[in-house]
Specification:
Layout lengths: L1 E6 L1 H4 E2 L4 E2 L1 H16 L3 E6 L2 H9 L8 H24 L5 E6 L1 H4 L2 H16 L3 E6 L5 H6 L2 H11 L4 E6 L20 E2 L4 H6 L12 H13 L3 E6 L4 H7 L6 E3 L8 H9 L2 E7 L1 H9 L9 E5 L7 E5 L5 E6 L4 H7 L7 H5 L13 E3 L3
Helix pairs in contact: 2-4, 2-11, 3-4, 8-10
Length: 367
């Protein structure tokens, strides 16, 4: 089994020293080593660089200024990796650092290279440790989080399971910090809007332990056919118990039909550069019948994009129904929207393809 384990900064940080909790890292390492001894491959997605950097620079308050936060992350990343390397070396294992950015993985070739590198590391018995490249990725350090990165990495390496180590036991039916009678939800078969609301995603309940972000990550991973578990990371031994078959925390059931690696990349590895609004007939053809998007079904174009970019497909209400890679630029689509395929060449002077987006490059319901 190939397992991705996501470890948040709240699990790795030591509040008393304002640095890394080395004892917990040691416990996590021991759990990973035991999993490997059981025959499993493990990839870690780890936060903690900012916490480590604060300790080295003597900062008592987490910086809010972007350039300082990036500098702190750069300083702390080496300490984070040094701690992991020392901990795993005690068991005769080596680690490898992989710093990724969303924009980097948006390039298909770089995405495949990252995948090949991770799989090669695993084949050599090395433990890959992945983190966002916070020192240069301004957008990620502001809005991104390692829950989303973990979901992407899980799809990238075609993992069987994603385990998110949280500071709570899992997903509850109410906020456990406010309601003592809150009950842990052991299994979630479908991440519906009601489930998202439990984590604060609809503004009804305050998010606990970043649970909303974890649900978004789980929603992406299960769509790729990956089992997702949220367990208490302050008790690393639970990780081994979980893999041995014990019911722990909250488990999210994967979709039976797994997205292909390519469609997983289209869905979650790249951002939409613009959008096209589909008429009712096109929505039905693309969503229900899984057909390609033709120019005749496009009502309007939003944004500026070029050939090969990802674009969102919207219905008349503005709701996203699909996402795909376009064969035409936004300028070209403006000229051919509403036309039959036989009219493309006359309108443009050339014809790349009959389809604006081929069915093989469309992911339904992608967000």
């Amino acid at each position: 089994m190939r397992i991705v384990v996501k470890i948040g900064s709240n699990i790795l940080s030591d509040k008393s020293s304002r640095g890394l909790n080395r004892r917990r890292i040691g416990s996590i390492t021991s759990a990973v080593v035991e999993l490997r001894d059981m025959g499993h491959e493990v990839v870690l997605v780890s936060s903690g660089a900012v916490a480590a950097g604060m300790k080295k620079l003597g900062l008592k308050v987490k910086p809010s200024e972007i350039k300082l936060k990036q500098a702190v992350a750069a300083v702390g990343q080496s300490s984070l990796m040094e701690t992991y390397e020392q901990s795993f070396s005690e068991h005769g294992l080596h680690t490898a650092q992989m710093l990724l950015t969303r924009d980097g993985l948006a390039d298909r070739e770089m995405y495949i290279n990252a995948k090949n590198t991770m799989l090669t590391l695993l084949s050599y018995g090395v433990v890959p440790i992945v983190n966002e490249n916070d020192s240069v990725a301004t957008e990620e350090i502001r809005f991104g989080d390692n829950d989303q990165l973990a979901a992407l990495v899980s799809s990238l390496v075609e993992a069987d399971r994603l385990v998110i180590l949280s500071d709570v036991d899992g997903l509850f039916d109410a906020d456990p910090t406010k309601k003592r009678s809150a009950r842990l939800i052991s299994v979630v078969d479908d991440i519906t809007e009601d489930v998202v609301c439990l984590a604060g995603g609809c503004g009804s309940i305050v998010s606990t332990g970043g649970m909303y972000s974890k649900l978004l990550a789980a929603k992406k991973a299960v769509r790729s056919g990956i089992i997702v578990n949220i367990i208490n990371g302050k008790r690393p031994s639970l990780l081994v118990s979980l893999i041995k078959g014990r019911s722990i925390g909250t488990e999210f059931t994967p979709h039976k039909v797994r997205l292909t690696a390519r469609k997983g990349w289209i869905a979650y590895g790249i951002k939409a550069k613009g959008s096209v609004v589909l008429d009712k007939g096109a929505v039905k053809a693309v969503v229900e019948r899984r057909k390609s998007l033709l120019p005749s079904g496009i009502a309007s174009v939003e944004g500026t994009f070029k050939v090969g970019d990802a674009v969102a497909c919207l219905d008349a209400t503005g709701a996203r129904v699909a996402k795909g890679l376009t064969n035409y630029s936004s300028e070209d689509i403006e000229a051919i929207k509403g036309l039959k395929t036989s009219q493309i060449e006359k309108a443009l002077g050339y014809r790349y393809s009959d389809e604006v987006i081929h069915a093989d490059n469309i992911v339904i319901g992608s967000k």
